[in-house]
Amino acid sequence: MNLPTICYVLTASLISSACQSTDKLTTNTADKPPPADTILIAEARLNEGTRFNPTDQAITRDDVKSFTDNEPEKPVYKADTLAATNKAYVILFSRLYSNETIGWLVTVNRSTQQQLDKLQVYYDNAEGMTQTETRWLPQQQRAIVKTETYDEDGKPKIATLIYQLTPDDKFQQTYPNTNK
To answer: What's the number of CA atoms in the CB half-sphere (13 Å) around residue 26?
Structure first.
């Protein structure tokens, strides 16, 4: 199975669940929460996604390997649609297993189901040498990615990068400014 098929399966399942939850919200709008200004992409958020397993469903291990650039062992995969533009969906895709958790924001073309771009937005491993956490600002279509790395002496180094979703639905680093 190729990457477009993966994206189609992910998008279709997420759209289906989103449509079902939208139907429920329209019947009781008094309890409808306001739209989120900021979504913290941390381990708890990654666990909220729709679960799928490449050995049990249409997505194969080779498909996941091509997407993540890594051979999965026995992780749990989850996905959650965080935003939509006129042409694309912004999907939070995660790979969770005991000693490493990784999350990506992936843009997928709505009509062709092709992956347009991906951005690693979460990372945590058992060694604890590097940790990445992100705040997604849906109204601004912006990701604030904070990475904390520890040197051999245990001293932290923190780097913050800001990415903007461009009109062609790709992530462009805007801070620090790379166009100097």
So the answer is: 6
Q: What is the pLDDT of residues 118-172, one digit of tens each?
A: 999 999 987 778 899 999 999 999 999 999 998 888 889 999 999 999 999 999 9
Q: What residues have CB less than 8 Å from 23, skipping those under 6 apart?
A: none
DSSP secondary structure of the chain: --HHHHHHHHHHHHHHHHHHHHHHHHH-GGGPPPPPS-EEESHHHHHTSEEE-TTTSS--HHHHHHHHTS--SS-EEEEEEEEE-SSEEEEEEEEEETTEEEEEEEEEETTT--EEEEEEEEEEETT-SEEEEEEEETTTTEEEEEEEEE-TTS-EEEEEEEEEE-TTS-EEEEES-S--
**What is the average pLDDT value for the chain, to the nearest integer?**
74
R_g over Cα of the chain: 17
User: Do the Cβ atoms of 63 and 3 come closer than 8 Å?
Assistant: yes
Amino acid at 6: I
